[in-house]
Amino acid sequence: MRAVLAALLAGFALAGCAPAPAAQDEPALWRIADADSEIWLFGSVHLLPPDLDWRGPRLDAAFAGADEFVTETDTSAAAVEAFAAFSARYGALPAGETLAAKLDAGEAEALVRHARNLGLPIAAIDRQRPWLTALQLSLAYAMRAGHRPEAGVEAVLIREARTRGMRLSFLESPEQQVRVLADLSEAEQLRFLRATLHDLERGSAAMAVLDRAWAEGDVAALEAALDAEWADAGPAIRDAILIERNRDWAGQIERRLAGSGRIFIAVGAAHLVGEDSVIDLLRERGVAVDGP
What we know:
Elements (H helix, E strand, L loop, with lengths): L1 H4 L23 E6 L2 E8 L12 H8 L3 E6 L3 H15 L13 H13 L4 H4 L4 H15 L8 H12 L2 E6 L1 H9 L3 H17 L2 H11 L3 H15 L1 H24 L2 E8 L9 H7 L8
Helix pairs in contact: 3-8, 6-9, 10-11, 12-13
């Protein structure tokens, strides 16, 4: 699901009564400040087409003025190895179980067909828990459609941050990110897999809609596109991937505001738009947030 790539995968990718803001020709950006702190919140996309032009003067100025760059999770080489290890630990089915046995005949056929089309090994997938297979299908499909992790927001900005000597930090550990999905019940994991297969059947048009809405800063269009996908995934998956993490991150951001410094925070765009977003939660806490 493209919504999951907009909300998770930094380590591996609505309701409202106010008038919809106009598109601003660059991705949306929010600002929080007090006497000795300035925090910019930027909704990222973890995999993007390399030829998509998403940089803008407001983003570049905010990033250039920051001393610290905060991402969802650690993206160092050691962390990438940790993601693989945790995925293997939490993504394997118990001995004697197969994924195909948990699906009906039509679902199993669709899984095999899409896995083959995307070059994923059928035998390995059949020994995986549903959450991991759904994630691999989403990533492989996005990459087949021309999206690349090295062109994603975090990859691009981390290279620049390291060149500038910025301080790097993150909101979650690799294990925390993996367990967001791994700790779902089997019934919810299967719903996630079925929603992913349904998403693949619809083709790549939804990906282009999301990319365009995000790159143009069209928050209303982005919310609408993401809402449709979250409805397909179900409330338990939305709560696990979005809401629970939003609450945690809003608390972390509020504590950072109580300190001092100039900070640029990039998290999946789905976390910053819509009801119960990080922005919503901060405003509910009385934090003044400038932006859409």
